[in-house]
Every structure is written in structure tokens, then in C-alpha cells.
Automatic annotation (TrEMBL):
Subunit record text: Homodimer.
Protein name from the UniProt record: Aspartate aminotransferase
Similarity comment: Belongs to the class-I pyridoxal-phosphate-dependent aminotransferase family.
GO cellular component, one term: mitochondrion
Recorded GO MF terms: L-aspartate:2-oxoglutarate aminotransferase activity; pyridoxal phosphate binding
Every Aminotransferase class I/classII large domain range: 55-419
Cofactor(s) demanded: pyridoxal 5'-phosphate
CDD domains, A to Z: AAT_like
Keywords per UniProt: Aminotransferase, Pyridoxal phosphate, Transferase
Gene3D superfamilies: Aspartate Aminotransferase, domain 1, Type I PLP-dependent aspartate aminotransferase-like (Major domain)
Keyword Signal found: no
InterPro entries xrefs: Aminotransferase_I/II_large, Asp_trans, NHTrfase_class1_PyrdxlP-BS, PyrdxlP-dep_Trfase, PyrdxlP-dep_Trfase_major, PyrdxlP-dep_Trfase_small
EC number(s) given by UniProt: 2.6.1.1
Length: 424
């Protein structure tokens, strides 16, 4: 080793605490502690280890068919066949991904007739599904001087980590009234009115995770004007378009209303749930600018975050969505299939409520059928959730969130009895 490299190395070692130096003499990893399991994904690991025959998992938000099996949309199967026969190359995508996919994704959310889209004021990039798009947004905003992002309380469990790791301070606004199992709209408006100008407010575009409670259209209208008065940066997280009502266009109503009202929003889209493309990591991150030039500048900044992070996104899932959305027949089939998933979930909401009543529960479970989207925010406490896991081997997240997509005619009574037993 050259002399100056040697002394640089010994200088660095001298700066390490003695205990760490001792540990390094055996292994550079000896001082690594076991990290806690992820509260949502970690549930699957726990579930796999459980050998109880009637065990049930209703934790992770992934759709299951009537037999409780993972479901691939028939339109996606058809698109796969078309792609396989297309003899496509496997070259890198650009930093912003597949341009045709991005165009179609934006039309899907903002609407083909969107004036802002036609004016070129909405631009975007392909993202590593919803999570990747959220992180790119967080990093970009931090780089451009933002300090604080507000999340609804509660929100999807990963939001806080994503934005804290992006360097933003994460705060909450009131969203859910647990005592009445309803939206705390008054609290929400009050908290938004107290946010300092320039703060980022994250809104779930539809099918709020975990509560399944969305503002009504009138309430969205009010939020639109309150947010405008406050001069906030509005960031929509759109992970369930099609899962709330079964109609993807209807579920985009809040986004479209905000853009029509003149908000210069940003939005992340996930195609995990509506297209059932979970592991393919298909998403988009977009921005609405005052003009095309401004939107393009923002996209260029998204690209400067993406390039050193993962260079460019995978192509296959984006090509699947493109193949479907480019073809009117396949798009119609997809819309039917998406509605089929939403309808099955709604049927299971009714079935779970009925089973709870048949099991003898006298509690009011109407919130299960009032809520929409993939989840039922059951109202079970953490203690009750843990008891249900230990006694009945029914796994839901620690906050009592039940993925309705995992409930089937075969397991609904078993789940209802388990809930009733711990909630009596
Ligand atoms: C509200 C919300 N946003 C984003 C995501 C991220 O999803 P993905 O990264 O799988 O697209 C999820 C997933 O559950 C979610 O519920």
C-alpha cells in the first residue's frame, strides 16, 4: 500500500470507537443488529412459519380470487401472449421509462379529454410502482427546498419511512374519527388551514389506505378551495384507481377536479392493484405545470433523481399496461375485470358483516360495508389483533386493518368467529 494511502487508512481507523474496532477484527458485520420485521410484509414471513391448518392471512393488500389464490387478469394474460409473439428486444428503457406507457398512464388518470394534458402541461416518468414514485418525489422536493410533508392520520404504513428517508419532516393531519368510524372532515380542514404555505400535503386519490373512507365529491370541492387558499403543494397518491367504485374514471374524480380547479399538482400512480401487476413494479410520477416548459423542467429533475438511484425502470410490466391501454377491446376487458375484483370485495364486505352478526356479535359493524377499496379498518385494537393471531391464526396488520381481498366464501365465517371472539 502506498504511504499516503496507509496513513489515510490508519487515520480512519483511529476515528472509530474502540468497541467497533474490536468487532471489526472478527467481521465487518459483527456489530449489525437484526432489523425488526416490516409491519406489513413481515406478516407474510410470520404466516409462512405458522403450520396451523386453518390459518388465514388478510394482511398484505393483494387481491385473491374466490378460492383465495393470487389472480392474474385475463387481459394481462392476453397482453403477455401478444408481447411474447412480438419478438421485442431487451434493451434499456430511457431514464423516464417507456414514453408510450407514460402517455397512456397519464390519460388513464387525468382523462383523455383533460385540457391540461392536451396543452402538454402534464408530464411524467415511469416509476418503480407507487413506492418508487413516492421516493423520487420526496427526494426531488427535498432537493428543491421543501422541508415538510403532511400525511393523513392514519396513512399507509410505508409513507412515513419513505419521506423521512427522503430527508423531509413528516407531520400528520387529522383524517379518521376512530370513535365514530368515519371521516373527520372538520378536523382535516382545520389542520390543512394550519399548514404553513409551501408545505406538501399528501392526499389519497381514492380508497384511502387503511381506513377505506374517502371524502365525498362536495368535500373534495371544499378541500380544493381550502388548499388553494393555503398555497400548499398537493401530492396525490393514486394506488387504487378502479378499486374504489369499480370504475377507474370515477375513481379519478378528485384528481381531475383539482386539475380543473387550477391546482398544479403532482401525482404518483401504481398499477399494482388495479392491473394485478404487483411484482412487475409498474407506476408513474407526473406533474402539472403552468405550461409545458415548466412541466418538462420538473420531469428533467425527476430524471436527475432516478439516474443515480436505479438508472432506469424495468420494461415488461409497462409494456403489458401499454398493450392493454392501446387496444380498445383489451381496455374494455380490463375494465370489466377490475370491476369484477371490486365487486367481489364488496360482496365479501356484506358477507363479513352478516357473519359477524350470525356469530352473535352485537357491535355495530356497518363501517365494514360503508368503507370502500381493498381494506376494512375493523376497529380492533392491537391487543385484539395479537390475540386473534395467537388464538385463531388469523393475520391482519397491527392496526386492525383487514385486507378484504383475502376474504372468501370459504374463510369468511372462520374470520368472523375469530373477530367476534376477541372483540366481545
Ligand atoms: C396508499 C398506497 N400508496 C402506495 C402504495 C405502493 O404500492 P406499490 O409500490 O406496490 O405500487 C400502496 C401499497 O399498498 C398504497 O397502499
Amino acid at each position: 500500500m502506498a504511504m499516503n494511502a496507509l496513513s489515510r487508512c490508519s487515520n480512519q481507523l483511529r476515528r472509530l470507537p474502540l468497541t467497533r474496532l474490536r468487532q471489526m477484527s472478527t467481521s465487518p458485520w459483527s456489530f449489525f443488529e437484526m432489523a425488526p420485521l416490516d409491519p406489513i410484509i413481515g406478516l407474510n414471513e410470520q404466516f409462512q412459519k405458522d403450520d396451523y391448518p386453518s390459518k388465514v392471512i388478510v394482511g398484505v393488500g393483494a387481491y385473491r380470487d374466490e378460492k383465495g389464490k393470487p389472480f392474474v387478469l385475463p387481459s394481462v394474460r392476453k397482453a403477455e401472449k401478444i408481447l411474447a409473439e412480438g419478438g421485442l428486444d431487451m434493451e434499456y428503457a430511457g431514464i423516464a421509462g417507456e414514453p408510450r406507457f407514460v402517455d397512456l398512464a397519464l390519460e388513464f388518470a387525468y382523462g383523455e379529454d383533460s385540457a391540461a394534458l392536451k396543452e402538454g402541461r402534464i408530464q411524467g416518468v415511469q416509476a418503480l410502482s407507487g413506492t418508487g414514485g413516492l421516493r423520487v418525489f420526496g427526494e426531488m422536493m427535498k432537493k428543491h427546498g421543501s422541508t415538510t410533508l403532511y400525511l393523513p392520520n392514519p396513512s399507509w404504513g410505508n409513507h412515513k419511512n419513505i419521506f423521512t428517508n427522503s430527508g423531509l419532516e413528516v407531520k400528520n393531519y387529522r383524517y379518521y374519527d376512530a370513535d365514530n368510524s368515519s371521516l373527520d372532515f372538520e378536523g382535516m380542514v382545520h389542520d390543512i388551514k394550519s399548514m404553513p404555505a409551501g408545505s406538501i400535503v399528501l392526499l389519497h386519490a381514492c380508497a384511502h389506505n387503511p381506513t377505506g373512507m374517502d371524502p365525498t365529491l362536495e368535500q373534495w370541492k371544499e378541500l380544493s378551495s381550502v388548499i388553494k387558499e393555503q398555497d400548499l403543494v398537493t401530492f396525490f397518491d393514486c394506488a387504487y384507481q378502479g378499486f374504489a367504485s369499480g370504475d377507474a374514471s370515477k375513481d379519478a374524480a378528485a384528481i381531475r377536479m383539482f386539475v380543473e380547479d387550477g391546482h398544479l399538482i403532482s401525482m404518483v400512480q401504481s398499477f399494482s392493484k388495479n392491473f394485478g401487476l404487483y411484482g412487475q413494479r409498474v407506476g408513474a410520477l407526473s406533474v402539472v405545470g403552468r405550461d409545458a416548459e415548466e412541466a418538462k423542467k420538473v420531469v428533467s429533475q425527476m430524471k436527475t433523481v432516478i439516474r443515480p438511484m436505479y438508472s432506469n425502470p424495468p420494461r415488461h410490466g409497462a409494456r403489458l399496461v401499454t398493450t392493454i391501454l392501446e387496444d380498445p377491446q383489451l381496455t374494455a376487458e380490463f375494465r370489466e375485470e377490475c370491476k369484477g375484483m371490486a365487486d367481489r370485495i364488496n360482496t365479501m364486505r356484506g358477507a363479513l358483516k352478516d357473519s359477524l352478526e350470525s356469530a352473535g356479535s352485537t357491535r355495530d359493524w356497518s363501517h365494514i360495508t360503508d368503507q370502500i377499496g381493498m381494506f376494512a379498518y375493523s376497529g380492533l385494537s392491537n391487543e385484539q389483533v395479537l390475540e386473534m393471531r395467537a388464538k385463531h391464526h388469523v393475520y391482519c396488520t397491527g392496526d386492525g386493518r383487514i385486507s378484504m381481498a383475502g376474504v372468501t366464501s370459504d374463510n369468511v365465517d372462520y374470520i368472523a368467529n375469530a373477530i367476534h371472539d376477541v372483540a366481545k
